[in-house]
Specification:
Blueprint: H1 6-14, H2 18-30, E1 36-38, H3 40-53, H4 58-70, E2 74-76, H5 79-91, H6 96-107, E3 113-115, E4 126-128
Parallel strand pairs: 1-2, 3-4
Helix pairs in contact: 1-2, 1-3, 4-5, 5-6
Amino acid sequence: MPAIDTNILIRFLVRDDEEQFQKVRTLFEEYHESPLKINLPVIMESCWVLTTTYGYSKMKFIETFRMLLDTQGFEVQLDRVIQKALDEFEETNAGFEDCLISELNNASKDDPTYTFDKKASKLKGMKLLR
């Protein structure tokens, strides 16, 4: 299954370079009957790029990625875990990355996940190392 890199996903989401956006659109049209894979590192890097470079707020990031998870044409690696992490991110003060770490470890039944991060330590399965 073909996959896309972060820069392709970012062009699709923000459409800040029309020429590249059209190339992405053409690529998506070529694969309209089979999904393009979006792997976990692409999700993580996209979070960083959208919030730091493009100034996405927490809610805009959550809404964007919920839309992405519901969009046909993509197969998002660990989509259920990412959805749970988005839910947890929305409900807490922890960062998305910490929510994702928590959900990944909860999904694999690793218990606990130690952290020095006080906000992250409030997440299910996380424990503050004192």
